[in-house]
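Researcher: Please generate the 3D structure of the following complex. Treat every line as part of one assembly.
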Amino acid sequence: MANEKIPYKIYLTEDEMPKAWYNVRADMKVKPAPLRNPANGEPMGFDDLTPVFCDELVKQELDNDTAYFPIPDDIRNFYKMYRPSPLVRAYCLEEKLQTPAKIYYKFEGNNTSGSHKLNSAIAQAYYAKNQGLKGVTTETGAGQWGTALSMACGYLGLDCKVFMVKCSYEQKPFRREVMRTYGASVTPSPSETTAVGRKILEQFPGTTGSLGCAISEAVEVATSTPGYRYVLGSVLNQVLLHQSVIGLETKIAMDKYGIVPDVIIGCAGGGSNLGGLISPFMGEKLRGERDYQIIAVEPKSCPSFTRGTYAYDFCDTGMVCPLAKMYTLGSSFIPSADHAGGLRFHGMSSTLSQLYHDGYMEAVAVEQTKVFAAAEEFARVEGILPAPESSHAIRVAIDEALKCKETGEEKTILFGLTGTGYFDLVAYEKFHNGEMIDYIPSDEEIAAGIARLPNIPGIND
Amino acid sequence: MANEKIPYKIYLTEDEMPKAWYNVRADMKVKPAPLRNPANGEPMGFDDLTPVFCDELVKQELDNDTAYFPIPDDIRNFYKMYRPSPLVRAYCLEEKLQTPAKIYYKFEGNNTSGSHKLNSAIAQAYYAKNQGLKGVTTETGAGQWGTALSMACGYLGLDCKVFMVKCSYEQKPFRREVMRTYGASVTPSPSETTAVGRKILEQFPGTTGSLGCAISEAVEVATSTPGYRYVLGSVLNQVLLHQSVIGLETKIAMDKYGIVPDVIIGCAGGGSNLGGLISPFMGEKLRGERDYQIIAVEPKSCPSFTRGTYAYDFCDTGMVCPLAKMYTLGSSFIPSADHAGGLRFHGMSSTLSQLYHDGYMEAVAVEQTKVFAAAEEFARVEGILPAPESSHAIRVAIDEALKCKETGEEKTILFGLTGTGYFDLVAYEKFHNGEMIDYIPSDEEIAAGIARLPNIPGIND
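Model: Done. Output below.
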């Protein structure tokens, strides 16, 4: 062990926990591009967004200048139920790899949602409650976000309507039951309960649904039911703001022990975990105080950073949401049935896209089988069964540590372990049985997705 | 909040973690009765037990005098990966119940086995490795113990052969895949790989197996394969010794903040969790230093303490194991298909049975539907989705807190939250759908089980 004084797990005391979220946009010289109205291409302001989202969240969404937003006491108290999350020194993994590198991970899986999603779910539910709303609507695919939101709403006594992609609803009954335990209503999408759902069912009888369709249903219910708003678990600026609690806790814990990471690694789907983990470190980098190597890891099956283009696009396949400027494969791009459901998003957070575009971070894409091999290696020595999403970061952390073994460098590597894989064992089984396939889209498929980007004069031309 | 200074979660530092296990038998005036050979009724000694169990574990099993066993460094390092477990102040549950009681729980579910089982699994695997063995065998029903043992063996590079009851193997493929991730071989029982398995399959073609049969297969493989021993996750004295880490951590955390529990509550199947949680408190009670109300909670469907008899009996339905003196419903008693698989054992730890017999603890039995109602109430305010087993303790903790509301007493209640319910969602679904049944055995059924106890002259007469 390189440093005997550093414990296996660093926990903060409640007094040391962050009292404000950090908004990385405040330190960006080039701000992320605004959301735009798909009808006329105009930037969307407060009044355009409040019919869909809670007022306070819209303010957070639009604010590129305020660096710190105080975390309300009620949210801090909820955080205390499952936070601080541990910053773990991966002594056992280092030993296994025989690397001179020092590896740390911030583990966000020790709560019933099994992931970091709860950090933003409780914030969004709180602001809805505070606005005097009756409830919120959302969509869920794999189910982590739906579970987190159900937990937050259950705690606050807020109604929660989840539209769950029908094939997931049927294939993942356990996820559905967890949400019901917390009092949420879970509707398989497309459903007969909305106009858009009925229309889709008429056009495509027997369809098993899609995330795009579930979003459309959730938005319809939110905007047509008095006292309801729609909430979302990733991509948006507000979500990255709430998730900054991950990076802030990490930074406080590291500072306490004088640890400075050389490399920071996170998996990237819509960007909620990566954006949260890196935010205070990125802040230092943007302000020129310190340099870090920051690596986003995405699946080769859905490589928005590494093979996408930087342009305005729809966030949803149903094309009902505002346009966002981001690295995208095109909203019509259908990723293969890759098992890391949380990383199967065609686009990427606007904030992270701008930072990547400006050279503040790197990105790598990895094959699924190599991700599961890393997951298994990690589980055996570190105990935790990781989610496939999180395992993308593990893969690259191991690769970096093995490079250090070659060069003899004693780099300090930090990665985000966003969640646990208890609900992903079908994928693990495929891996064990040698039935897992590495799907990599062809150049033609990538080009076709990008060719169908919305064509808005003066914006995407 | 009654005391502002007590945090939501109390974590010990690594320096504060226990350095030795506590053996409650050392403080018992009346020692638990010895294991006896079913062939001749003689007490079993070191040489009788070492063909089946590891040498060091047999020593621990037989030692009624040594109060503290130092925890080997390698085990303490493994403990540091997932321990200390948090002692949680249930502020949100207290608020919900509007009770003057102060409620604490020790949460053992923050590891991939999802339960406290890992505390003994790593100890048993360590001693096997230290003895130069190649591997261990065991049986598993619901899968928590098999998962914990797989994790421990995966970490130490020890072979692990798990016999999993065939119906669980088929119905719980996820549990099986977790074990495979950690490198264990999992065989559905009964199997063609053992003589006893083949015999059972010949007699009962198409049988879906039983725990008794799986034990018989695991013991056969351990005793007939050079370099292997059999290990067990509950009931035995050695297991309670290792699980004392739960109670010791709890006691250290409580002492640190000057908290003294009035009531201590744990669920009881074979006794591993309850015995571990209460041990240091029971030690004080046995030594006359302090009094505590200690309550064991069992399901009404399998009420060994409250409706069983105190006698020598087989620990397994296959009747291949030594006889233990315990509260038992008879090894032929078949509990209903109650969902709390971990509490479906016909007997009880000999140590706890003696303590109960001597009046040092109480026992209550609760109905399943009331247990799930408590589980759901708890989940919504405290966030954690509890295992059905653990929820038995939650039920009684809530009942005690509601009594305090009636009387105005400000009692301090401590209970053990042994694990999470991620793999028990079929049961939650039944509960949500109103399809859960409260099965309570008739007096005739209880009498029939007890009537078939082994009849050994001079012992059970």
